[in-house]
Structure formats: C-alpha cells, structure tokens
Design brief:
Layout: E1 2-4, H1 10-20, H2 22-28, E2 30-34, H3 36-44, E3 49-55, H4 56-61, H5 63-70, E4 76-79, H6 81-87, E5 96-101, E6 115-120, H7 125-138, E7 142-146, H8 154-160, H9 163-166, E8 169-170, H10 175-182, E9 187-192, E10 199-200, H11 201-207, E11 212-217, H12 226-231, E12 234-237, H13 249-261
Parallel strand pairs: 1-4, 3-4, 6-7, 6-11, 7-8, 9-11, 9-12, 10-12
Antiparallel strand pairs: 2-5, 3-5
Helix pairs in contact: 3-5, 7-8, 7-13
C-alpha cells in the first residue's frame, strides 16, 4: 500500500476540498466520507469508492471495516496521523477515509401508494442527517430534499449514520415545480405548518391513505414558503399541548414519518 505523509499531497488536497466545499462536490460528483463504520457501510451498500486512506493504526484497530473497503476499492493509501488530522472533520479521527462517487438523485416517478418526506431549505446538517436516519428506520420510500444543506455535508453524513448512503434521496431544484409536476393522480402533498387551524396530521393521513402521500416540512427558522404551502393539497399540523410554539424540524419529521407509515 503506497504511503502518503505530506499534508500538501495532491490527493489529500483534493479530498480536503470535497469535505470543505459543496460546489466542489457538485462539480466533481464525489464526496469525502470519514469513519470506519461509515466507510464500511458505503462499501457494503454498493457506493462507488474511488480512493481510500487508512492510518496504520486504523488498519489494525478496524481491520474488519478496512477489509470491506479494500475489497471494493483498487486505490488505497496508508496515511500518517498528521495527514489524517488534516482530512478529519472530528477532533479524534479514526483514520479511515474514502472518496466516494455520488448516487443519482434526479427526480423520479413517485411510487403508487408510497410514503415520502419532502424538505424545503433545511439548513442544519445535524437535522438533515437525523431526518434521513429516521426515514430509513421507519421505512419511508424516499426523502425529497430541495435546497438547504447539501446531503453530502460531512456533518450530515455523520448524523445520518449511514442512512444517507442507503435511503433513496431525490433532489429537485425547485419544490413548487416538483409539487406541480407530481400533483394529482392519487398523489397528495401535505404542507406541515405550526398552525392551530390546519388539519391534524394523523387525520389527514387517514383521509389520503389510498394514494401516495408526501409530507412537506420547511426551514428551521421560517418553515415552508407561502408558495410551497399554496402548491400543496392541504395544510396539516402536529397538535401540541404544551407552551412551545413549534418543534425542531427533525422531531417534526420523525412524527410525520410515523404517521405516514403506521
């Protein structure tokens, strides 16, 4: 295994640029994944692994995970601890990193009878990752992510704990256009809002149980835009008995997902 000890090595600089820049990720179609378990998950999930980096300690400490990556990656490098710290987005890196190819997230036809979450301009990578993890756990058919945080942001990848590598994700450019092109024909879009005069989400989901249902959630600070709300079929809300005015978007998404699938 070829060794890399210089922090300014071209392959290291490229990997760092993928971690730091969403535009670089979009331009290249690649992203940097960090962590023994996550990189192993990527290898086992059929994600294209272009290049892998391991410290000598990681090869020993995480042998099973490293072998899973080596089995599907032809270009592996041993790196020094100093290089690992440059690549890492955490304070205590495990010393396992992969440059991976992005999956295709182009809009696709929604499945008849499917259950979907749609996010408009969710900004916090921890929220995005948590939503993807919940969606996979509860069996949501896909998550539609329009604007906001890049799904390949390192913090979002870490918060998703591998779910972003397995769950289907659709990334339309414009939520209103996406809703408009998919509405009708048994597909119903529910705008989730913190409003007492909206329908309770559980009742609304029952009303649309025979078709495809998409629950649409908005930005942490401002919620859904008026244009997106108007494009949806109905406004729904999660009833709250306490004094809080709203829920964190990842908590709201978890409740919405549960109502969709139960």
């Amino acid at each position: 295994m070829e060794k890399i000890t210089a922090r300014n090595n071209d392959k290291i600089k490229y990997a760092c640029s993928l971690a730091a820049s969403a535009s670089k990720r979009r331009e290249s179609g690649e992203f940097l994944l960090e962590g023994a378990r996550l990189c192993s998950d990527a290898a086992r999930s059929g994600v294209e692994i272009v290049r892998a980096f391991f410290t000598a300690d990681a090869v020993s400490d995480y042998a099973q995970y490293v072998r899973a990556v080596e089995a599907v990656c032809g270009e592996c490098f041993e790196i020094s601890g100093e290089v690992a710290r440059k690549l890492s987005d955490t304070g205590t890196p495990q010393g396992v990193f992969c440059v991976c190819g992005m999956k295709d997230h182009s809009p696709a036809p929604l499945k008849e009878g499917g259950r979907y979450l749609m996010l408009e301009n969710v900004q916090d990578p921890s929220n995005l990752g948590a939503i993807l993890r919940t969606a996979e756990a509860l069996g949501i058919d896909a998550v539609i992510v329009s604007g906001g945080c890049d799904i390949y942001n390192p913090k979002a990848l870490r918060a998703a704990m591998g779910s972003s590598l397995r769950v289907d994700i659709i990334t339309p450019d414009d939520p209103v256009s996406f809703i408009g092109s998919n509405s009708g024909g048994g597909i119903h879009f529910l705008a989730c809002v913190p409003s007492a005069d909206a329908l309770e989400i559980g009742n609304a989901v029952k009303d649309f149980s025979g078709g495809t249902t998409v629950c649409v959630l908005g930005n942490e600070g401002n919620g859904l835009t008026k244009e997106t709300i108007d494009a949806c079929d109905v406004r729904v809300t999660i009833p709250m008995r306490g004094r809080a005015e709203s829920l964190n978007v990842s908590a709201a998404a978890a409740i919405a997902a549960w109502e969709l699938v139960r």
